[in-house]
Amino acid sequence: KEMLGFPGTASGILTGGASEANLIGLLVARNSVANTDVGNYGMGHAEGRLTLYGSTESHSSLIKAADILGLGKEAFRKVPVNKNFQIDLGALRAAIVRDREQGHVPFCIVGNAGTVNTGAIDPLDELAELARAEKLWFHIDGAFGALAALLPEYENKIRGLSKADSLAFDFHKWLYVPYEAACVLVRDAEKHHHALAVSADYLNPQARGMAAGPEPLSNYGIQLSRGFKALKVWLSLKEHGIDKYRRLIRQNIHQARYLGSLVEASQKLELLAPVSLNIVCYRYNPGGFDEDALNRLNQTLLAELQERGIAAPSYTVINGRFAIRVANTNHRSRREDFHRLVQASLAIGEAILCARPPEAVV
Amino acid sequence: KEMLGFPGTASGILTGGASEANLIGLLVARNSVANTDVGNYGMGHAEGRLTLYGSTESHSSLIKAADILGLGKEAFRKVPVNKNFQIDLGALRAAIVRDREQGHVPFCIVGNAGTVNTGAIDPLDELAELARAEKLWFHIDGAFGALAALLPEYENKIRGLSKADSLAFDFHKWLYVPYEAACVLVRDAEKHHHALAVSADYLNPQARGMAAGPEPLSNYGIQLSRGFKALKVWLSLKEHGIDKYRRLIRQNIHQARYLGSLVEASQKLELLAPVSLNIVCYRYNPGGFDEDALNRLNQTLLAELQERGIAAPSYTVINGRFAIRVANTNHRSRREDFHRLVQASLAIGEAILCARPPEAVV
Fold this sequence. Notes:
The structure is a homodimer of 362-residue chains.
Chain A: E1 11-15, H1 18-33, H2 38-41, E2 50-55, H3 60-68, E3 76-79, H4 89-101, E4 105-112, H5 124-133, E5 137-141, H6 155-158, E6 166-170, E7 182-186, H7 189-196, H8 229-265, E8 269-271, E9 279-284, H9 291-307, E10 314-318, E11 321-327, H10 335-353
Helix pairs in contact in A: 1-3, 1-7, 8-10, 9-10
């Protein structure tokens, strides 16, 4: 998909999800940038500790990838964020300097295009520039957010996307494709190939017959035998066209903003993070309760919303506050759904406080 | 699936394929056996080089896993095989001793239950014993072969299977389930969990609602969101029952032996490896040609078989000899198919040598 601003010469592979796509991106980064042949000789052979950088809001799959790849979870330096939950560039620069002074080997910066908690978009342009200046790999986790790049109005915010060395994103989120379908793009196909290709007598291509033809996909991913994921992605794109996706993604974002405005308009609901994409984090806060009580209250409120079949938001914790988290990637969502969610949140919140059975209220 | 002799307390997870299952098995091995906390501090923190052992016939995904995990491909010690393509136990013991002397840290033995090239089954019992004596992790790659354990007549050969610390196998091979469905079992669920569990505010379980209930599968694998692979596996097992699988697997093995006997009975065909499971490797060898010419001849022969729609064998190289490789995991295979394959191989072979258009012959 060079609709995300990657050159035609870039390589890519469909994966089971963004966790695997992130893993492959970081693997290519590690094997490409390391000061030694870690692919053959292992991480123990590298001089100095390879470190990588992302914000505290980075997805857990990236930290897990650091473990899997033998970098160690601690090698993922969690850089603080600003009030918009974007990575703090000053802190990032300082962390790189500090690591270099201590003899470590910074090798990769991870940018977020839509963080899991709040949908925040890191300053991708600046990160791309910093990565280039410091000779680091620039990987972007754009699990769902990368697809906002389809919208002209997001072009500025997300421009740095096309400057990444590798980019992971899902089709099974904001392209409404069924599980499992994600993708990793790598700008330098040669590095991608070098990090993942294997040769084996039972795999090497033949001049003729069934094993002739293009290079096997397994040379760009972890899987060997694999399902035909591309079919559903390609058919969806062909059938609906990019314009329809553009419209639906925009609709999801506008709906999220609408929900945000409803929350802000309410005296008893509190927005816990700015709405920058399609994620809204809020809580019921009628005043007069400490944080612990609010957390318990909102956990109960969320359970009631889910158990009674009203709505199925997820949850997270924002600055220690339990948040009801609405991640709107449903093309069937309608404005009235969000209106109803707000009404139900208020009514259930009140019912819990009054210890009335919530059935009596909504 | 504790039908493979694993205790009920073992953990397991379905994966997209055996490559991923092997990767997870070796990851748990690495993080469990390493002399330091490599999960948090990385491979660079380990004292000495972590090494693992498998035969030269081990699948490429295991060597690729060694790269991914930061062990390095070279850390996978390829131990020679005997004439039946089973690992040479003496050479294995010597390799472990040699590595220890050089300050390396052996941590894992990989056994094959059905090698990719010839279907050879390593002496699993002895490997299990050796691993226990040397305090190494014992992983088995049983991509398809593990399921031979369902047959009482294979109990002796494959008994060591149930002594493995981890076991990878596919449902999409010898359980006739569509792609993608594989599995890794880990005897010690706690170690499995420890190597792969992450905590994140948006993932941690809740007391009530949709996030209550059993622990998320992501704590045992690489994926987070995932398709419902278990459905097709469970429904297939329920619908057909273990007995039917037993019958079909046995049928596939008997058919492979039948093909082997046809090859041996022919003057111009040559069996390149013993038939130990369901894989038959043979070539056309009418005599009087050197190895190079035979390799070219059989490559052409295979291409003709495939391109003319007669049969779709794969290929490999056995001791430098290009082999036509029949891996029989099709429940629809019939004896006459193999008879036809032999006839066609002979006829096409002859046609190539006589430079007659092969259409005229078969």
